[in-house]
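Lecture 7 notes. Example A: sequence first, then its structure tokens.
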Amino acid sequence: MSSKAKILILFAVIIAGGFGLVLWKGKAGGHGGALTKVTKEEMEMLVKDLNPMQQQMLAQSPDQKKELAKNLQEFLAIASQARKDGYADKPEVKEELEYMHKAILALSYDKVKNKDKPMPPLSMITEAQVAEFWGEDPAKAAEKKDGAPKPGENPGQPQQLPEQPPKGAPPAEQPKEDKKETDASKAKPAKLVIASQAENEGFFASLMEKIGLGSASAEAKVRRREAEFKKFLDAQKKLEAEKGQRPEGQEMSPEQLKQMRDSFARFSIYAEEAESKMGELGEEFAKKVEFQTKIQQSQLLAQLYAREKLVPQLEVTEKDIAKYLADHPELVKEKKDKAEEVLKRAKAGDDFEALAKEFSEDPGSKDRGGLYPNVPLGQMAPEFEKAALALKPGEIAPELVKTKFGYHIIKLEKKGKTKGPDGKEVDSYDARHILISTTYKDPANPMQQEMPLDSYVEGLLKKEKQDKILADILKNNPIEVATDFTVEAPPMPQQPQLPPGAQLPPQAGDGDQPEAPKEEAKPQKGEAKKDKK
């Protein structure tokens, strides 16, 4: 594998899996943004999330460090261009970009809280905490095994808390207490009515919590969370449809919905907890979260932009390939000259079957003297079939026939009928051919296997187009990425040592090592040592 290919795989690991972020996102506006400069410290932060083998590879190769920085520069430039072209302003993309911060904040906080213990992400959050997040009774939530919304239940609407009266209804009668009511307790129902009227306005949510209206504040929180989850869910569905991951209009299964709902809650719980402890977590923690947020946001924008704008520009047509081959006859000259020589011998009367066995590079027919019997119409390459059917039985095509596999020398044996897959008779023919393959091995990549010349040229033309597109994007979106970052080679794992006494004794008589002398048994206390005889 080439260094380029290795580093591309390496970089894909960083942007797609460095923090384990795949799908679940959370909302936190004002974070992230365009990333136009990556410092030495940020690069070192980035590579710390790689596995030991990848770190070892970078530590040993300065060239691959430069290649990593170059690929990161290109990746961020594409994301920058996507922002200029308005991709970040699409409602579903904007929602997704906002949600990313919460997920990264939660996962980073989880790593701090677990202190890198080998535990699944967010596994310390209990089912009771998840139930409480959605305003459910933790005890009843444990009994609800499936966790999915019931038929007819809208996941985007909040659950009605039993202790709250419906809007517009008078507040429920409060149970009478034995002691005399105070003025403050008499005024409580009026406050509840005011809170109910303002519950959808975020300004009052925190105020109600402060003045002790816990139930009203809890309902407002649940409504806000349900609305956020519905917004998140709608954005996910639309993005998946745009990326071809889910047919538009196809609904998620109850299991998928439950998983998303559960994960949304877990990310939100830890993100809120982390936000409340940012002073304790420190500046370095905040910097890392912000940097990872920008990387993940850039990943999404680059992915969407590349799929919609760049991939179509890389298309290579058959005309493009034919023109390139015509402009570079040296690529096929040797093979074509060989094919012309074999054709000349076949037309001169040499045994076609013997020529096929000697020269053909088609493993499927070489041992049969190049014969393909009972070929139904439409089965072979169009160029091959057209040339074969233009012949009479026993004739050899006067010219070489070019397909993507190489040059063919074709002889028609007969035309007839054969049975198709449905048992009905269809037109068919028997033909022999000699294939002089035009497979090509890239001299710049000795480890790569030979491939059809057309495929090689197609890849070459795609790379030329890609390099030009990237050069234009980099020119219009200058990105600075440090290349002098340090990658510490991780310590190599040591082989486990056997406990004392568990080592295998040396085998006697193998001739490699002299047999170790046996230790003479020590006499027990009070026992005289016996003399050797």
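Example B, a different protein, same format:
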Amino acid sequence: MIQYLLKYLETHYPLDKQLLLFSVSVFCVSSGLLPVVIGQRVFMELSGFPHQVGGHFGLLQCTGHVAKPMNARELAFYELMGENLRQFVPDYCGRVRVCATVDDDGDLRLVAEPAVECHPKLKRSGSVRFHLDESGKVQVVTDRLPNNYWAAECQSKVVHKLLEGSYSWFILLNNIVATFSRPCVLDLKIGTRQHGDDASESKRHRQLRKCRESTSATLGVRMVGMQLYESRTKSYTFVDKQEGRRIDAAQFRSHLQKFVRTCGIGRAARLRHR
């Protein structure tokens, strides 16, 4: 870990600031990731979020948080949200700056500052690491995780963007699946309109077509993605966004029923409690 931060400091700080390296110390927290103290600066190590089933931008994770690429509109949503709505969304825990470095073997390391520990991670559900191959393509390396191709595709893209620049801002949200070792995840897109007032004409037509050709038009909701852990087979099954657009109203209800059944009595009770 230290060698990656050395490269980071050499790139971003003048020589006199690098004297802070003499006060390096490392400590471990319950998350299994390693915050690193350099002088009075504390960095967090990030990895890929293994349970992403939808979205366009790759999600990362650190301690008990999910790190999501920041955009001004979503940031304003979380910062200006009224207290009466906060119970329905993950806790917003601020924003961090993320930097990616690569070693001589092509292994990538992602670090962020400032370090945040308000939601410590409770379960280990595997890890997602990144490697830069000889062609310059980011490869996703997983450990005892489901074969979630969509998460790998999105996260490799966001790591590429980090490599193209030095810094990138991310928002931090409470990782609501951190208490589960084998979480079942369902991503739904609510509403019959899915484009903003400032969308281009071409994007507006694309979004209208997606709604018209899916359950967004008939039910006002469509499935973006789903992962289910089958205890009988000890494996995951997935529904990706393409299948989510194709299914009709009856199939949507069938998938939803299967999700609730697969979660089991214990998980269903926890969902109702939340």
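Note on Example B: Residues 13 and 94 are 24 Å apart (CA to CA). The longest strand covers residues 92-102.
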